[in-house]
Design a protein that fits this description.
129 residues, mainly alpha, Collagenase (Catalytic Domain), binds zinc ion
């Protein structure tokens, strides 16, 4: 869980969910998922836009791609977990699990999403060396 109040900006994980997430058979990684919520929350809003990471010019394309994919999930036309269509924040968390755990299939099946996430998460390595 991601905390509020005194636990604001803190993350609490159970050891079992941490182990389960990093096991080879799991699709779901709670540690990555909750950590992404924290990154998302760092700019003050849990809205699926990680403003500290995403270049300004990519916010619009990211929103477009996110909403397009959420639509597809809701129509049952996507392989991405239904939970990602809950809202923008869950979309970012779920698609980030996918990005870090199965980058090859994400790149193959969702090249635009992959390219956007690659820029968001690899910004440090690319631009500020
Ligand atoms: Zn979540």
């Amino acid at each position: 869980m991601v905390g509020d109040g005194v636990l604001n900006r803190k993350m609490i994980l159970s050891l079992s969910s941490l182990r389960e997430g990093f096991s080879m058979t799991s699709d779901h990684n709670t540690a990555i998922h909750e950590f992404v919520h924290l990154i998302d929350k760092a700019d003050g809003e849990v809205d699926g836009i990680p403003e500290y990471l995403i270049p300004k010019a990519l916010i619009k394309p990211w929103l477009t791609e996110m909403h397009r994919t959420i639509e597809r999930i809701r129509k049952g036309q996507s392989d991405i977990a239904d939970y990602a269509a809950t809202n923008e924040a869950e979309f970012l968390a779920v698609i980030s699990e996918y990005f870090f755990q199965k980058p090859t299939s994400l790149q193959k099946d969702h090249p635009r999403l992959y390219a956007l996430l690659d820029t968001i998460y690899n910004k440090e390595a690319g631009q500020h060396k």
